[in-house]
Design brief:
The protein is about 20% helix and about 30% strand. It folds into two domains: about 220 residues, Spore Coat Polysaccharide Biosynthesis Protein SpsA, Chain A; about 210 residues, UDP N-Acetylglucosamine Acyltransferase, domain 1 (3 Solenoid). The strands form seven sheets. Strands 12, 13, 15, 16, 18, 19, 21, 22, 24, 25, 27 and 29 form a twelve-stranded parallel sheet that branches. A hairpin with a 2-residue loop joins strand 2 and strand 3. The N and C termini lie far apart (about 115 Å). By secondary structure, the chain is of the alpha/beta class. It is built from ten helices and 39 strands. Helix 1 crosses helix 5.
């Protein structure tokens, strides 16, 4: 019994070197808002409901494949060892796309296409039963783009380098995004030749070949040209990031009620989740899998990556969070740094010039200023005095400091880990704590003060002789 084909597969072409990027990094791994360019077309297709995808890799393919295996493990990887053009790439993937009724082909260096556009594109192609549909758009300056030629004989595309002067005057251009009936593409893919200025196998040549065989081709013009911005150099990369930033911030302001007084200075990545009634001041960056819950406040010059800010928390400004959590109604900053799964629990506070590394600060506890807390656990309602340091590294390994609840740690205390401090403990300012302190005790570990009467006066007299 013949196996029924699936309706759509998405093939992303990502083998190009990107010479104009002037970089050793494969073009599709350059980042837009901290995510590789390639993330965006794959995610758009996934969000549009297309679950089957494959990616053609070439230059820097090992790095691209490694990223795909981590981020899009269900995508099939197809190698194009020699970059001989888009039709050549499609030919190498023929075994894969032959299992679908239709194959959508996207450019791996075009990060701005939306799921909505891809959904409408597929629906129209299927509704009109075309052998091939492709997206087009108008550009005031179409230099470098393939021109869309419409005539009585149908629709075709001529690459810029092969176009006549009359054709180059056309403003409608090819986006490089296609949907082919798989059987129609299979019937012409081997007929495409490299007889052109670049000596490459061009996928647009399939359009006229399909029409010659009686198939119908349609160019579906979009009124959103920004969606088809390709990235070929660093300036275009920056432009793409700016467009995506504006799109994300606008959506959060309109749909989530995010208050943002200077949207153009705020940078938010595509994976970030923001709740209701969040306030973000100018010059803030939110990256990776960051989550900001309802009612939180994010002050200026704060940078968060893969971190969580719970409801009604307050980041007062110039705060850095990496892989860390600020609890509900907790506060941090200004000039605080939390990293490696540091956590503030409910209503805890970390203040000026404090670094928290791989530590937990308990409910209602405070580390107000000028302290380093590393590999530590602090209980509830404990106050850590200025200048406190957990000396966690002994030259070979990291050691843990445990401080109980209701403690008062005097300024300039050093805890030489491993050390455990019980509940309701105080330490004298300037102490170097090397031993455990039991519940309810005062820890004092410093030299006894000696006052030498008249010493300063005698010294001054001696210097003036």
């Amino acid at each position: 019994m013949k196996q029924q084909k699936k309706s759509f597969g998405v093939l992303v072409l990502a083998a190009g070197k990107g010479t104009r990027m002037r970089s050793k990094t494969p073009k599709v791994l350059h980042t837009v808002l901290e995510e590789p360019i390639l993330y965006y077309p794959l995610k758009a297709a996934q969000s549009a409901g297309f679950s089957e995808s494959a990616v053609v890799v070439g230059f820097g393919g090992e790095a691209v494949s490694s990223w795909l295996e981590s981020e899009f493990p269900k995508s099939e990887i197809i190698w194009q060892r020699e970059q001989k053009g888009t039709a050549h790439a499609a030919k190498l993937a023929q075994r894969w796309w032959s299992s679908f009724d239709n194959v959508m082909i996207l450019a791996g260096d075009a990060p701005l296409v939306t799921p909505e556009t891809l959904s409408l594109f597929a629906a129209r192609h299927k509704e009109e039963k075309k052998a091939c549909s492709f997206l087009s758009f108008d550009l005031d300056d179409p230099t470098g783009y393939g021109r869309v030629i419409r005539g009585r004989g149908g629709v075709s595309v001529v690459e810029h380098k092969d176009a006549t002067e009359e054709q180059r005057a056309i403003k409608e251009v090819n986006s490089g995004m296609y949907i082919f009936d798989s059987e129609a593409l299979a019937s012409v893919i081997d007929k495409i030749s490299p007889r052109n200025a670049q000596g490459e196998y061009y996928l647009p040549d399939a359009l006229s070949l399909i029409e010659e065989e009686g198939g119908s081709v349609d160019a579906i013009k979009s009124d959103a040209p920004d969606e088809f911005l390709g990235v070929n150099d660093q300036l275009q990369l920056a432009k793409a990031a700016s467009v995506m930033r504006d799109r994300i911030v606008k959506s959060l302001m309109l749909n989530n009620g995010m208050h943002c007084m200077d949207p153009r200075s705020v940078w938010i990545g595509p994976k970030v989740k923001v709740g209701r009634d969040v306030t973000i001041h100018p010059s803030v960056q939110l990256w990776g899998d960051t989550v900001v819950e309802d009612g939180a406040f994010i002050g200026s010059f704060t940078v968060l990556k893969n971190s969580t800010v719970r409801a009604n928390a307050n980041l007062k400004g110039s705060v850095r969070l990496n892989d860390s959590t600020v609890g509900e109604r907790a506060s941090a900053g200004p000039f605080a740094f939390m990293r490696e799964h540091a956590e503030l629990l409910v209503n805890a506070h970390v203040g000026r010039f404090v670094e928290i590394k791989k530590s937990k600060v308990g409910k209602d506890s405070k580390v107000p200023h000028l302290s380093y807390i590393g590999d530590a656990e602090i209980g509830e309602n404990t106050n850590i005095g200025a200048g406190t340091i957990t000396c966690n590294y002994d030259g070979e390994k990291k050691n843990t400091t445990k401080i109980g609840r209701d403690c008062f740690v005097g300024s300039d205390t050093m805890f030489v880990a491993p050390v455990t401090v019980g509940d309701d403990v105080s330490t004298a300012a300037g102490s170097v704590i090397t031993q455990d302190i039991p519940d309810g005790a005062l820890g004092v570990a410093r030299a006894r003060q000696t006052n030498i009467e008249g010493w300063s006066r005698r010294r001054r007299h001696k210097m003036n002789k």
